[in-house]
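Q: How would the C-alpha cells look for this protein?
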Amino acid sequence: MGETTRGGLLGICRDRGLAEEGRRRIEWAESQMPVLTGIRREWEQQVAKPLAGVRIAACLHVTTETANLMRTLVAGGATVALAASNPLSTQDDVAAALCEVYGIPTFAIRGEDRDSYYQHINRVLDLEPQITLDDGADLINVLHSQRRSLLPGVMGGAEETTTGVNRLRAMAAAGALAYPVVAVNDADTKHLFDNRYGTGQSTIDGILRATNLLLAGTTFVVAGYGWCGRGVASRARGMGANVIVTEVNPVRALEALMDGYRVMPLEEAARIGDIFVTVTANWHVIDAEHFAVMKDGAILANAGHFNVEINLEALAALAVRRRVVRDQVEEFELADGRRIRVLAEGRLVNLAAAEGHPAAVMDMSFANQALVSAWLASRPGLSPGVYAVPEAIDHEVARRKLHSMGVRIDTLRPEQEEYLRAFPAGT
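A: Here is the predicted structure in C-alpha cell form.
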C-alpha cells in the first residue's frame, strides 16, 4: 500500500508503481470526453477561476472518467480530495495516478473492507469541504451523522445517482438535510444518457466479462424499468435475449409492455429466468421466495448502487455449500442440488466486473458535476434542500456535446419565439 502527502492530506492507494499505467488510461478516457476536457481547458486559461479557493470533497467511483473530473475541478481553482463510493469499483492504477501524477489526494483501494471504506471517507472530510460531490450519498450521510461540526462550512453539494437522490429527498422531507444539494442525476443530459446508455452497455459488459455467457436465447429478467432498467433491457434484447421486465410502478410496467417486453411479477419470472439483473435502488428485491423456485444455474447480478437489492444473507442461509467458480462469480448450492450464481458479490456488476460506463457518456455527467460545482460556488447562502440542475447548465452540456460530434441544430426565429409567448393565436 502506498501513501502520498499532498497539501496536508494523505492519499492512500494500493501501489504507487501503478501510476504510469493509470496516467495512460486516464489520458485515453480524456480523448473520449471532449465536453469535460473543453471546460477544463477554458478554466485553465481563465485568470478568475470559478472555483478559486474552494475545497471540494468527493466520494465517487475511482475510475479514469472520475480522474478527469478531478483534474477539471483543480483547473477551476479548487482544492480536491477523493474517496471511493464503492469498495469494488476502484481502479487501483487510477488511484495511484491521481496521487502521484496529478497531486490529488485519493483514498481508495479496490476490495477495501467496510472499516477502511468509511475511514477513507473521513480522511476526505478532513479537508473541511465547502462543496461535496457524492455517488450514493455516503459522504453526506457521514457528514450529517459523524462530522456535524463541519456542516456550517458547507455551502452545497451535488449527487450523481438515483439511490443517492432518493436518500437526500428523504432527508430533506424529514428536515434533516443541512445544506443545498443539486440532483445531478436528474439532469436530462445525465439520466437520459448515462443511466440508459451507460448502465445498459456497462452492465452487459460486466456480465459477459464475469461469465463469458452467450446471451442470445436466454431468458433475461430485468427488475426495475427506470432509465437504467430501460437501458439494460434494451441492450439485453440487442444481444438476442428474451427479456422480461418486473415492476411495481404501473406506468413503467405499461411502458415496458408497449416497448415489447413481457411483464410479470418477479415471483413468476423467478421460475423461468436464466439471468436476473436488479436495478431498482431498493432493498431485497430478489429474496428467499425467489431463490426457492429458481432454475439450477440461475445467474444473479445487481446494477443498483448498493449491494442490498439481492438478499445475499437469505441466500447464504439457504446454501449448503458456496464456492467461487470464476473470478467475480460465487456459486451457492442449495439442499436440493440447485446452484444459484451471484456476480460481483451483488455489488455494481458494471464497475466490479468491468470498467463502468464508457467515457463518452460520462463526459456529459461529469460536465454537469463541474458546472454545478461552479454554480454552487457562486451562490453561497442557498437554503437547504434538493435542487434541480439549472436548465441553462443542462442545455449547455447538450450544446457542447453536439458541437463535439459535429452536429448542428436549428434555432427559433424571432417570430417563432413570439408565437410561443402569445396566447390569442388559435385556429
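Residues 2-190+357-404 form a domain with the Rossmann fold fold (CATH 3.40.50.1480).

The longest strand covers residues 319-326.

Upvote if useful.
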